[in-house]
Amino acid sequence: MAFAQLTYRESLRDIEACLRAQQQKLYHMGIRGTVAKSNLADANEQRAWHIYADLAHALIITARTLYSNEPFGIDLQQTVYALDATTIDLCLSMFPWAPFRQTKAAIKLHTLLDLRGNIPTFIHISDGTVHDVNVLDALPIEPGAFYVMDRGYLDYCRLHVISLAAGFFVTRSKSNLRCRRIYSHQINRATGLRYDQTIMLTGFYSLKDYPNKLRRIKYYDVDTDKTLIFLTNNFSLPPLTIAQLYRCRWQVELFFKWIKQNLRIKNFYGPQRTLSKLKSGSLSLYTSWAPYSKNGSISLQVSTQFYKY
User: Fold this and answer.
1) Which residues pair with 230 in a beta bridge?
2) pLDDT for 31-73, tens place per residue?
3) Residue 4 and residue 12: Cα distance in Å, rounded?
4) Mode of pairing for the β-strands spanning 168-172 and 146-148
5) What is the reported pLDDT for 299?
6) Which of 206, 216, 220 is nearest to 183 (CA)?
7) What is the pTM of this model?
8) Is the separation of the CB atoms in 245 and 196 below 8 Å?
9) What is the rounded CA–CA span in Å between residue 129 and residue 256?
10) pLDDT digits over 135-182, tens only?
């Protein structure tokens, strides 16, 4: 599967034809016999996907160690993660186990990205119908770390779990937020800040789910002419830093763009459900390139030319 990814093969038959064209070189790849399409199909159906997941996990640890001191645009000692999900469309007739719409199938790739080095540290593959916020139930919380996510993850009960685990979150507020202002902090409006408030939720269910204080920051972006309202449980960082943290969330979108352009994750080499797990091998390739990128051999960093909210 690694060979298929690196050489952009489109099918099992394509893999077989490519390998047979280089029959004299197969010995150096550890292949002693003839590669047949049926052998590849049987291997895909029977091989456990855990070996790829374990390989990816080991490579992630190595890559994060190399990039532990890598700057990401904000002078912050704590680890900062960006959480988001992307949908991978599939053919419904070939993948009936992944229903998404009436005429197509899909799976979702939920990814937690360490912004130092843009290394994925947590990957969860689900059906396309699973809402993004549900992945917070399986997310491992690191004390002291920041979790930056869009307002699709705004669930006060789950955010309270992050707070209880000594983690920090930065997300956007919804327009129907019901709250009570407790205190307003001083700001510099020339920086784009409009207010920095300490609030308490007033909705019956929202207050029950999150009984602690929250910090609400309103920021106007001159470049995009947009006004954004952030919610966080961190009261120590400057308000402008909170806005900059959310700006860095765009790195996870660039990560999804990179893997879709450079790795074959939109096509599967068979209809089996386990092949969605075998796509962990694609992400293993991504993380295995990190040491070479760190040493200057190849370029791994996704482009940061355009920042968006």
Assistant:
1) 172, 217
2) 777 778 888 777 777 777 777 777 777 777 877 788 778 888 8
3) 9
4) parallel
5) 44
6) 216
7) 0.80
8) no
9) 19
10) 999 998 999 999 999 999 999 999 999 999 999 999 999 999 999 999
Structure confidence at residue 234 (pLDDT): 96
Give buried/exposed letters for 276-304 (b at 16+ CB in 10 A, else e): bebbbbbbbbbbbbbbebeeeeeebebee
**Coil vs helix vs strand at 214:** strand
Cβ atoms 169, 146 nearer than 8 A: yes
| CB 72, CB 63: distance < 8 Å | no
**108: β partners:** 87, 126
**Does residue 269 register a pLDDT over 80?**
no
Q: How confident is the model at residue 274 (pLDDT cuts 50, 70, 90)?
A: low
Region label for 73, one of left (φ > 0), alpha (ψ between -120 and 50) or beta (otherwise): left
Q: Alpha carbon of 83 to those of 114, 186, 253: distances in Å?
A: 9, 30, 10
Query: How many Cβ atoms from other residues are within 10 Å of residue 118's Cβ?
Result: 24
CB 288 within 8 A of CB 59: yes
Find the DSSP H helices in 173-279. 204-209, 239-248, 250-262, 274-278
| Number of C-beta neighbours around residue 40 at 10 A | 20
Q: Are 37 and 294 in contact (CB under 8 A)?
A: no
User: In this structure, what token pair is assigned to residue 74?
Assistant: 């904000």
| Pair of tokens at residue 209 | 């789910």
Closest CA to 281 of 303, 250, 305, 259: 259
